[in-house]
Each structure stands twice: as C-alpha cells, then as structure tokens.
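Good morning,

Attaching, inline, the backbone tokens for the sequence recovery test we're adding to the shared suite. The designed sequence is right after.
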C-alpha cells in the first residue's frame, strides 16, 4: 500500500512539474506583486467597488430632493350624454405644467444627505477591510509555500543520506558484517525518505495551487514565489509591548471604523424617523389650458381663454399615523444600540486576535531556540552513529533512531521559524495595516 501511495504521489508531482496542469511556464512573483494583482483582479474587491458607486448614486439622489419637481400632464377625453338636449357627444382635452417644492420636511433631507455621505465612507472602509483579509491570506499562503520549499530541501538531504547508508549497508551485508534483516531495515528507511521527498513536493505544489486560486489566476496560469532568507532576528527579537500594539491596532482597524460610522448612520436614521412627526410645508404652482368641442369658439381661442396660472402653499400636520413615526424611531434606536455592541465586540475581537499572535510568537520562539540546539545535537549524534555503524560498532536500529531524530529536529526547526515569522508579520499588520516581506 505504501508503494502504491508513493507511486501515485510521484505521478501527481511529475504531471504538475511537467506542465500537465499549466499551459504557461511558472511566473515567479514577490509578495507585493501578488497583492497588487489581487487589488486589480479580485472579484470580491470589484464587487465592493460597485457598492461604493451605488452609495455615490444614493448621495446624488439625496441631494436631488432639494430640487423642485416639474411635470407635464395632458388629458384627452370623450363623453356621451344620451339624454342631453343638444350635443350628446363631446371631446375634451386639457394641458398643464405642474411644479412643487418642499420648503420644510422636518430635516429629513439633511439627514438623508449626511447618511449617504457617511455610507460612502463606510463602503470604502468595507472594501479596505476586505482587502486586509485578502492580504493576510496571501501572506499565509506565501509563507506556507516558502516553508514547503524548505521542507523539500530537508527531505532531499535526508533522502540522500539514507540512500548512502543503505548502499553502505548492502556492501556490509555482502561482506557478512550485517544481516540481511539489518540491510532491509535501512533500505526501507531509504524508501520512506524518497517517498517523503515526493510527498513534500506534492505539498509544495498544493500550496502553490492554493495561492493561484486565491489570486483567481485561472487554470491556464501557474506561479511560484520569490525565495526569502529571513534573518534570525526576525524570530528571536521581542515584539513591541502588547498594550501599545493593541492601541495601534484599534487605530488602524477598518472594521472598527466601519462600526463607528454605523452608529453615525443610526443617529441620522433616528433624526429622519423623528422628522416623520414634524409638520411639512410645500409650494405648488402650475399653468394649464383646455379645449371642449361643446364650446362654439375655435380651438385656438379656447386655448387662449382657458389659459390659467395657479400657486399654492401646503401645510401638512401629522396627527395620527398609526404609530409609524414612533415605531421608526424605536427601530432606529435599536439599530444604534446594536452598532454600539458591534464596536465593543470588534474591540474584544482585535484584542483576542492580537494576544493570540503574541502567544503564538512566544511559543514559536521558544520552540525555535530549543530546535536549534536539538538540531545541532541530532546532527552530531547522527554523524557519530553513522561512523560507528560503518565500522560495525552499532546496530542498524540505533542508526535508524538517530536518523529519525535528525529528521524530526530539522522539521521542527523550520516549522518553528516560519510560525514565528508569520506571527511577527501578523502583529505588524495589525499594528499598521501594512505587510512587507
């Protein structure tokens, strides 16, 4: 079963490397290039841009409420009077321009404009928050690729060592120094190490595929990332004080700003709802004329004599509205309270996320310090045991144990390094809203 699994994994890696899943050569991208591509091509971001445009249109509509309305109307009619003494049928027509303008509506128009302006800014913040999430996802994928690439290198080196040990064991078996069982154990270890190389290569290809899907590149393109040599200080240096990072994280958090603006919108909704109970004053004006076939005068004379002008002032005072105003005000106040809860929840969420990365950083740094020493000791031990095995002083089982210890130590070392790098970069991102690699 292990042999079949090895062959299938090897086949998958070979197909991808040979180009069976990509019609173009790999493009090597930096982290910044990945971010810029996502900024310009991500579908969710483009949809968010449409939300901003929609908010701008809403603002134009709110401002247009200050403009008077004007319309033209005409009526063409036919009447029949079967019991009439004279003309029993008559054709009538009327024509008119009518305009109106609201002088006072309780302040609803001003509230609508302020609400629309705030909503534009809120839409921008929503887009910025979405872009922050995308950048952090790209960071995680990018570092995963770098980790998998380094894991491939570790596994290849271990595979070379175990292959050399298996070859040496074969010679020792043929000369009678070790049994065939010892040789088979070492050959089996070499086979497992070869499988680990192919498995690590498949993991690397899978992580690159995840990044390609995140960038929405399509099946016809494939990418690789630029290697980065992270300094040890990036792992070992202390993080800034947690309280300072929390303060900066709150200041740069787009989602928190979004929730705060939601409170402002709720305030405008409350004002607009209260305006529903205020008196409204409007001005109306119009001009018109008409024509009747029952009138003996001609069409032109009738149109001239029927010409009229009118202007009026309308005052509307709400008395009973089935509690519509009271209900709207209550709902707006509930929405405001809910937005305030969203602010508190986001502050707590930022604190939890930030503290979690601090804990992760401390854990990874401790693991890394221990792993460095452990890797040195395991490498020396493996070299020493290998030399003693070559002259027949130790059994194959001891050689296998030292080889496994070295493999675990080296994988633990790179895992701790990349976990520390990710934690540090996420803390930097939360503090400033920016990521650099």
């Amino acid at each position: 079963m292990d042999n079949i699994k090895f062959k299938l994994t090897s086949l998958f890696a070979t197909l991808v490397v040979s180009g069976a899943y990509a019609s173009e050569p790999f493009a090597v991208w930096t982290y910044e290039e990945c971010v810029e591509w996502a900024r310009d091509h991500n579908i969710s971001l483009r949809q968010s841009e449409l939300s901003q445009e929609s908010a701008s249109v809403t603002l134009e509509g709110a401002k247009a409420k200050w403009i008077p309305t004007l319309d033209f109307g005409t009526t063409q009619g036919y009447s029949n009077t079967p019991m009439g003494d004279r003309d029993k049928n008559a054709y009538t027509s009327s024509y008119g321009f009518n305009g109106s303008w609201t002088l006072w509506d309780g302040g609803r128009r001003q509230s609508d404009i302020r609400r629309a302006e705030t909503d534009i800014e809120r839409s921008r913040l929503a887009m910025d928050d979405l872009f922050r999430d995308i950048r952090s996802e790209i960071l995680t994928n990018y570092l995963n690729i770098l980790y998998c690439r380094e894991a491939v290198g570790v596994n290849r080196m271990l595979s070379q060592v175990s292959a050399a040990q298996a070859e040496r064991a074969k010679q020792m078996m043929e000369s009678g120094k070790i049994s065939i069982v010892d040789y088979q154990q070492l050959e089996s270890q070499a086979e497992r190490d070869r499988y680990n190389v192919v498995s690590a290569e498949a993991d690397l290809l899978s992580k690159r595929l995840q990044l390609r899907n995140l960038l929405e590149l399509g099946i016809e393109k494939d990418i690789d990332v630029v290697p980065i040599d992270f300094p040890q200080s990036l792992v070992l240096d202390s993080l800034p004080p947690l309280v300072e990072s929390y303060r900066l994280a709150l200041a740069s958090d787009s989602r928190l700003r979004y929730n705060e603006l939601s409170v402002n919108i709720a305030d405008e909704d409350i004002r607009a709802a209260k305006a529903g109970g205020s008196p409204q004053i409007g001005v109306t004006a119009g001009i018109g004329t008409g024509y009747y076939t029952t009138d003996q005068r001609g069409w032109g004379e009738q149109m001239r004599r029927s010409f009229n002008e009118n202007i009026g002032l309308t005052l509307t005072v709400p008395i009973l509205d089935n509690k519509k105003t009271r209900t709207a005000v209550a709902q707006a106040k509930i929405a405001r309270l809910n937005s305030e809860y969203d602010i508190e929840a986001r502050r707590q969420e930022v604190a939890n996320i930030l503290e979690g990365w601090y804990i992760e950083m401390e854990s990874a740094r401790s693991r890394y310090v221990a792993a460095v020493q452990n890797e040195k000791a395991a490498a020396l031990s493996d070299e020493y045991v290998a030399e003693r095995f070559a002259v027949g002083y130790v059994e194959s089982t001891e050689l296998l144990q030292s080889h496994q210890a070295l493999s675990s130590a080296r994988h633990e070392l790179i895992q701790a390094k990349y976990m520390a790098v990710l934690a540090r970069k996420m803390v930097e991102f939360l503090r400033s809203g920016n990521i650099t690699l």
